[in-house]
Amino acid sequence: MAQSFDVTFKLLFRNSRGVLSKLLFGDVFDWPNVELPEVRNPRVDLLARCADGTLRHVEIQLRNESNFDFRMLEYYLGIRRVTGEHLHQTLLYIGRQPLRIKGIFESPSTRHEYSILNLREMDGTELLSSEDWADNEWALLTKTDPEKVIRVVFDKIRGLSGAHRPVAAPTNPGTPPFRSRNRVRCARVPGVLSRKQPPPHSSFSAAL
User: Are 85 and 192 contacting, i.e. CB atoms less than 8 angstroms apart?
Assistant: First the structure.
């Protein structure tokens, strides 16, 4: 995912225990950020250590990329090299264009598959009815009527406690330019480096 969209989307997941978070990650124990030991020094979007001990990697995509399948293979190999563990990978697609990414990389000698969740094709009813405000905001990117979603999001933000309001308010679709002043801080673990966070700015505005 482009750096310019990182902060808001990551904040939604790291502060959420809602429907979409559980669908992608299950119960999260920790969010180790991996800096892969390559010349290009790529970094993953979200890597979660789940309560069952497994690693789950999610990449958030706003557009189709011809080399994305190969990039997921690179991520898998890089994370496996750092951690020595298998990981489950998922693409969370939130782009406006129809999804063309296949979810598999194949060559004459190699085959690598990962899961795809296309949020644009998802019925947002369950997200909208969730008690988790992050689910409500993710519903903006589903097939659900956006006006209905916005009303629910407004009501949810008004009812948030002081601790959650600063995180939710910047993504509020009625408060342009949706700039977040929050930065993600994650626990460091041996062999894993924290990912640098880009300057905070709008994410939902560009995705809608």
Answer: no
Among residues 85, 77, 102, the alpha carbon closest in space to that of 48 is found at 85
Distance CA 144, CA 165 (A): 24
Domain residue extents for the chain: 3-122+179-207
Q: Which of 199, 204, 195, 163 is nearest to 44 (CA)?
A: 195
Per-block mean pLDDT, blocks of 10 residues, the chain (208 long): 57 71 73 58 82 92 94 93 94 95 96 96 91 86 89 78 58 40 30 37 54
Q: CB within 8 A of 30, min separation 6: which ones? A: 48, 49, 186, 187, 189
**For residues 1 and 72, what is the distance between their CA atoms, to the nearest angstrom?**
12
